[in-house]
Write a structure and sequence with these properties.
Blueprint: E1 3-10, H1 14-25, H2 27-34, E2 36-44, E3 59-60, H3 63-67, E4 74-77, H4 83-94, E5 99-101, H5 104-121, E6 125-126, H6 137-144, E7 150-156, H7 159-171, H8 175-185, H9 193-196, H10 199-213, E8 221-222, H11 230-238, E9 241-252, E10 255-266, E11 278-285, E12 289-296, H12 300-320, H13 325-328, E13 348-358, H14 363-373, E14 378-383, E15 391-398, E16 401-402, H15 403-414, E17 419-428
Parallel strand pairs: 1-2, 1-4, 2-3, 4-5, 5-6, 8-10, 10-17
Antiparallel strand pairs: 7-9, 7-11, 9-10, 11-12, 13-15, 13-16, 13-17, 14-15
Helix pairs in contact: 1-12, 4-5, 5-10, 7-8, 14-15
Amino acid sequence: MSRELRIGLLGCGTVGGGVLHLLKAQADALEAHVGARLDVARVLVRDASKSRPVAADRLTTDPAAVLEDEKIDLFVEVVGGETAAKGFIEQALHAGKPVVTANKLVLAKHGASLFGLAREKGVDLAFEAAIGGGIPIVRTLRDAMVSDRVVSLMGILNGTSNYVLTRMLDDGIDMAEAVRAAQDKGFAEADPSADLGGHDAAHKLGLLARLAFGVDLPVPTVEGIDAIEAVDHRFAARFGYCVKPLAIGRVSERGVELRVHPALVPNRSVLANVNGELNAVWFEGEGLGPCLVYGRGAGALPTAVSVVADIADVARALVAGVGGLSTTGTRAAQATADARAVPPGEVQTRYYVRFTVDDQPGVMATLAGALGARGVSIEQLVQDGRPSEGPATVVLLTHRAREADLRAALDDLNASEVRVKPPCVLRIEDPSGGGA
């Protein structure tokens, strides 16, 4: 007869409910895989009067009743947020108990200390669900790529932003309407600013950089999709591109390049066809070459699939008496203290720039002259018709240029009289070739 492992579930919202569902539905298969029966012994909730898919006598609103239960073998943190969740994870690790978490915010901000504590205690801190929901990117980078060196990655890591941009393109609607549609579908929060502003993706990129490059660095460039208008989708399509919310990481002799922003990607590229709420991470290894991990990046069951997979891994390690393997295998353990983040101004890529300018003689020459004076070469330039009165829309694509040079040229134009409002600047990236 197999042994029993007791789980302390911290949180029973959307994801917690999905975890309980899968643990029950797959109980026999998990027992055979792990070598132990998995029993959810205690569940921390905010409101114990609500109906939950677990016996009422296992529910509690007191964190201590779960965290101080010495019979608990492993903890699962799905409460979300930062302060309380961080405290729960720390308390469990200090007690020498492994933790499974889906909390990207806590790990992005406090990962160095939490991973260090887990290594000190020799226990696991597993976090597959923190990046990309149900897609197995953590295992892929941590385990499958241990024999290779990842040199670049590019991902669509926020389903809300991807859904909004997809609806804008497919339905020809503005951003406000697309955001409302995302909220109606449950793909966006009431306050979607963390998603649309790029902050959610930046947390995930920081964790990916730990796994892929073994560094613990902030993400210097974090830009949201707020400035994108329907006209940008039309122009992108005209040039053979579509607009996607990207998270990018690269290593070179200049350092580690980390950035989150919307970008134009070629319609022929793999990421161009990742639509709606789906997530994907494209990465390139020196030996493997290009690889794509793709799937549903959010939702109760996709996220719960990753959480329960982590539970199974941690439980197997406990049964085998070899806890801490997933934490030791995380490349953050070898994070280099002297790693350098490439400053935004040093980034080199191609650019899409949309100007709204006065329709008068000499405007095109002024635009080209300002860019040329800073060493930024124009590849293509088009004007959207010729209005009978009012401003005109001019869009140009540049050749590869330093971001600092482009920004200096835009500052020069800002001092001129041809610009009506700040331009929309989008980078152009090609995942098929590791860059534009």
